Amino acid sequence: MQIQVLKSKIHRVKVTGADLNYIGSITIDESLLEASNIIEGEKVSIVNINNGERFDTYAIKGEKNSGTITLNGPAARKVQKDDIIIIISYASMDFEKAKTFKPWVIFPNENDNSLT
């Protein structure tokens, strides 16, 4: 049996921009992608702490060490600059493997989205 489990989580980062006219997705600082083991194009769920919005999109790579967290396209309507969000990805795996799987969870600095 396969189940879905938490694979990666970027816990509480600040939205740095919202670009309604971009084609879609969320732009995430490359250093945050690497630390959380999220790859470009991967489906991610977004939880907005400020307004309770929850939605799915896909990740695109932003400039490394820039702190960039930008919601693009229609998702830009669900956030405002400086909102705090959680970015989550899931993986399907065998039930027995899931019992011992350890997700990648990172806690960036909320002020500048850095890892230090």
TrEMBL record:
Reaction equations catalysed: L-aspartate + H(+) = beta-alanine + CO2
Gene3D superfamilies the record matches: 2.40.40.20
Necessary cofactors: pyruvate
Molecular function GO labels: aspartate 1-decarboxylase activity
Keyword Cytoplasm: yes
Record's keyword terms, sorted: Autocatalytic cleavage, Cytoplasm, Decarboxylase, Lyase, Pantothenate biosynthesis, Pyruvate, Schiff base, Zymogen
Cofactor: binding details: Binds 1 pyruvoyl group covalently per subunit.
Assigned EC number: 4.1.1.11
Primary enzyme class: lyase
Binding site for substrate: T57, G73, P74, A75
Active-site feature positions: S25, Y58
Classification via SUPFAM superfamilies: ADC-like
Modified residues (Pyruvic acid (Ser)): S25
Cited Pfam families: Asp_decarbox
Subcellular location: Cytoplasm
Description of post-translational modifications: Is synthesized initially as an inactive proenzyme, which is activated by self-cleavage at a specific serine bond to produce a beta-subunit with a hydroxyl group at its C-terminus and an alpha-subunit with a pyruvoyl group at its N-terminus.
GO (cellular component) term, any one: cytosol
GO terms for biological process, alphabetical: alanine biosynthetic process; pantothenate biosynthetic process
Pathway: Cofactor biosynthesis; (R)-pantothenate biosynthesis; beta-alanine from L-aspartate: step 1/1
Major localisation: cytoplasm
HAMAP family in the record: PanD
Subunit description: Heterooctamer of four alpha and four beta subunits.
Family: Belongs to the PanD family.
Main function: Catalyzes the pyruvoyl-dependent decarboxylation of aspartate to produce beta-alanine.
Protein name (record): Aspartate 1-decarboxylase
Species lineage: Bacteria, Pseudomonadati, Bacteroidota, Flavobacteriia, Flavobacteriales
